[in-house]
Amino acid sequence: MPTRSQFIAQIKDDYGDAWTELDDLEIFLTNGYIEWVENRDHNAINYLYAVVARLRDSLYEVVGKGYPLSSQYAVPEFLEDHTISEGGVDMPGILAAMMQSSNDEYKQFIGIVDAYRMALWNQPFNVEFYAALARGFANWE
């Protein structure tokens, strides 16, 4: 599977290509209009054909189907493969990530938790809420 960076780079390239195609449209529309005003209908039709071709090409770039990284549509596939879906962070995922972490990552995690604990130390404490929470944990099987 392509990496997140590869996907983003390809999507940016595709959008840049689409913008170039759309930028060319203005030139072809202007030239087609000039040819039509000058009664050179055949030339005007050629420019209008070029406009349609550029529109097709720009849509192809934005949709991004069949680009080198995938046979799917670029943006939806990127979102499916490289973003978190609703509810995507759960305890099994957290625990699996912790088991694969390095010692430096453990130290950083514990440091953050301890710093947060210290920041809360002198804050008001809701005894009833935390007592109920503790009772819930006490009921583990």
Explain this structure:
The structure is a single chain. With 141 residues, this protein is an all-alpha fold. The protein has 2 domains: 4-82; 91-138, no CATH class. The chain contains 6 helices and no strands. The chain has helices spanning 4-37, 41-63, 74-82, 91-99, 103-120, 127-138. Helix 1 (4-37) runs antiparallel to helix 2. The longest helix is centred in the N-terminal third of the chain and has 34 residues, at 4-37. The two termini are 40 Å apart.
Catalogue the unreliable spans: none
The SSE string, one letter per element, is HHHHHH
Task: Estimate the mean pLDDT confidence.
Answer: 81
Total count of strands: 0
The amount of helix comes to over 70%
Strand-pairing-aware structural class: mainly alpha
Net shape: rod-shaped
How many DSSP helices?
Answer: 6
What number of structural domains do the residues give? 2
Largest sheet: none
Distance between the termini: 40 Å
Q: Report the sheet-strand fraction.
A: under 5%
- Please tell me how large the radius of gyration is: 29 Å
Oligomer: single chain
